[in-house]
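Dear Dr. H.,

I hope your travels went smoothly. While you were away I took the liberty of generating a structure for the chain from your last submission, since the lab meeting agenda had it listed for discussion. I wanted you to have the full record in hand beforehand rather than looking at slides cold. The sequence, exactly as received, is reproduced here:
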Amino acid sequence: MKFKTHNNSREVEGLDKSLFSTSEKRKYILIFGLIIFLTPTFFLVIDFFNLSSYIGFTVTYDWLGFFGGFLGGTFGGIATFMGVYLTLKYQKKADYEKNRLSVIPILEYKISYNKADFDNSMGQLSDEGGIPHINISKASYQDKNSLEWYFNLIICNVGMGHAQISRINLIFVNGNNHEEIIKKEEIGYSYKLVKKDHDKSFKFLIYAPGENIHDNFAYGLKIKIMYQDLLGNKYEQLAHASIASSDGINFANLHYYENFKHLK
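The corresponding predicted structure, in token form, is as follows:
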């Protein structure tokens, strides 16, 4: 099976762009612009309205030297402080991104449709727990007319660090109209670790109505995988698959999966 490749360099290329948002840049530019504009305006207003006579300034404008030096030192100190602050903030975010990329999990997927992959011991195939059962419409494990799929989603971790799977959402849609949702199923996990350079199986038993075994039909299946790295950064990824039945033969296919998203 051919996997859709991932380009981890896209994360690195976007590092500098993501460190400061556009709104933050605009805020700092606006503050410095106002200071530069308002400072000479303040002195012009004092001179224009001859306010210096009320606040002890002399006609020879010797107050300009005093306040020029005072304000120059003040603005210089503010500029130095802001420069150090922004540098430290940038470095903190850069270090965080560097650490995140050093442990980022990269997941690939495949589907195995083989009844032998499922262990029938200890009631795992029944509705008593173990392997999750997903019932489409009124189909169920007890209904002998329901069609059954042994759906084994295999997650392979080819990234830099371990992945903790927290939730898998399965969304069944009409095979001819993917906007029509037929069934949603959310399966949560408290702790499912997919180690670096390892894979793990996530098995589901899927049941759908089967009034006529010779009917040909298919369901589109969107699989949303939610996971996090060992630093607590959260990600999600969407895989596109399908289950189908043709002349009494049931099968499942994985079509492709999208690039992961970092949830900030």
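Two observations you may find useful: The helical segments are 9-13, 15-19, 22-48, 62-102. Residues 149 and 164 are 26 Å apart (CA to CA).

With kind regards,
E. W.
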